[in-house]
Write a structure and sequence with these properties.
It is built from twelve helices and six strands. The protein is α+β, with helices and mostly antiparallel strands and 278 residues long. The strands form two sheets. A four-stranded mixed beta sheet has the order 2-3-5-6, with no helix packed on it. The longest helix has 17 residues. It is elongated.
């Protein structure tokens, strides 16, 4: 009978699960629970690594990361460092099941780690992948993947740095990346290229550099929030305590008067302050 198999390696002291995904996989692998492994994989992103020129040439990118009869993918915590000429391509268990063409191929997940899994991919296996994937996305809007807060176990969890990174956690969840990771978050070359083109009008290295320079100079955001926040920051530094809401509003109005700004600017700044305080 065709079954998916999970093979456990000896867990060494030097290896720890990077995220909850790898921890859940380690527990399932340790139990010899192949269905439990699939349940985890069905609800997370998987990443394959492919030669950049092959992806640029078109075709189904994940299928180009085949070695020794196996399609190789990794979970978020086991992503590889960036390498010249190699790009990451995001996929999912459901996507693979729907495009799997050769039952002689197998799926190899996280090779060389204690949560390495070798999964057969015969027709019965593919049906199980689809069924479990359907359960994993139940309640999720169509064409969207399940949202999950991904925390790096060795990343900052407390203190000012963690607090700052936490402010962007919603964006991290939307993008499917680790919210408290300071390393490279590059994990989907095709999606990154599409977003740069469609949202930023960026298709060349020069375009990208111009956008980065604009972002770092804080010239890409509306001026009103930046102005209001800078006024509050200066008051806080001068008084060594955060200003009251009324003091903040009054200071912004006085600063605009000194700049001879039009009345409409004052109205907009006050509106921005109300939004921030809401």
């Amino acid at each position: 009978m065709s079954t998916s198999r999970a093979r456990a390696k000896t867990v060494t002291r030097s290896w720890q699960p990077v995220t909850e995904v790898e921890r859940e996989l380690m527990e399932a692998v340790g139990r010899g629970d192949s269905k439990g492994c699939l349940r985890v994989l069905a609800g997370v992103d998987l990443v394959g690594y492919v030669a950049k020129d092959q992806v640029d040439a078109g075709g189904d990118a994940p299928w180009r990361s085949i070695s020794s009869g196996c399609l190789i993918v990794r979970t978020v915590g086991e992503r590889l460092p960036r390498r010249p000429g190699i790009v990451a391509v995001r996929t999912s268990l459901d996507t693979l099941a729907r495009s799997w063409a050769d039952p002689r191929l197998s799926l190899l997940v996280n090779p060389g780690t204690p949560v390495e899994m070798y999964l057969t991919a015969r027709p019965r296996d593919l049906m199980r992948w689809k069924r479990l994937s359907k359960k994993a996305v139940r309640g999720t809007p169509k064409n969207e993947r399940p949202m999950r807060l991904l925390t790096k176990a060795t990343g900052p969890l407390n203190g000012p740095l963690a607090h700052g990174l936490g402010c962007g956690a919603l964006l991290a969840v939307t993008n499917g990346v680790l919210w408290n990771d300071l390393d490279d978050v590059y994990d989907d070359y095709e999606q990154d290229r599409r977003l740069l083109r469609d949202l930023w009008g960026t298709t060349t290295a020069r375009d990208w550099q111009e956008q980065m320079d604009t972002l770092l100079a804080a010239e890409n955001s509306p001026a009103e929030p930046e102005f209001a926040l800078r006024v509050r920051q200066r008051l806080t530094r001068a008084w060594r305590v955060a200003p009251t809401h009324d003091d903040w509003r009054r200071a912004c109005a006085e600063a605009l008067d000194e700049l001879s700004a039009p009345p409409s600017a004052g109205v907009e700044i006050q509106r921005v302050i109300e939004r921030i305080l809401a």
